[in-house]
């Protein structure tokens, strides 16, 4: 027995819904990526990128470059968010503690945490 909705459903077409064109989604070259310089000094993260395994840093830099080339008026959050995240991660490496807090974990002596 196939599911049939009670109310007629509108057909959604990807080309009508998409926010960015293919040209906007592929808005940098490999040369641009090699020349990319993060707005923050991130030497430890650059070192991670040199290792033998794929690095999340390389993916983050690709996204940062991609966002840098998009217009600010069409983004839902600030265009610098990825570069700022990389800078925050570098500060965590430098200071040896996390600076990534989400406010959802509470520890109370005698009660535990969660």
What does this structure look like?
With 114 residues, the chain is mainly alpha-helical. The mean pLDDT is 87. Strands 1-2 form a two-stranded antiparallel ribbon. Helix content is 43%, strand content 4%. The protein has helices spanning 14-17, 22-25, 30-35, 43-49, 56-68, 81-95, and strands spanning 107-108, 112-113. The chain starts with 13 loop residues before the first helix and ends with a strand. A hairpin with a 3-residue loop joins strand 1 (107-108) and strand 2 (112-113). It is extended and about 60 Å long. It contains 6 helices and 2 strands. Helix 5 packs antiparallel against helix 6 (81-95). The protein has a domain at 29-97.
Major β-sheet strand ordering: 1-2
Biggest sheet record: 2 strands, antiparallel
- Using the CA coordinates, give the radius of gyration: 21 Å
What integer is the average pLDDT?
Answer: 87
Helix- and strand-based class? mainly alpha
How many distinct beta strands?
2
Strand content: under 5%
Low-confidence stretches: none
End-to-end span in angstroms?
44 Å
Q: How many DSSP helices?
A: 6
**CA-based shape:** extended
SSE sequence, one letter per element: HHHHHHEE
- Work out the helicity level: 40-55%
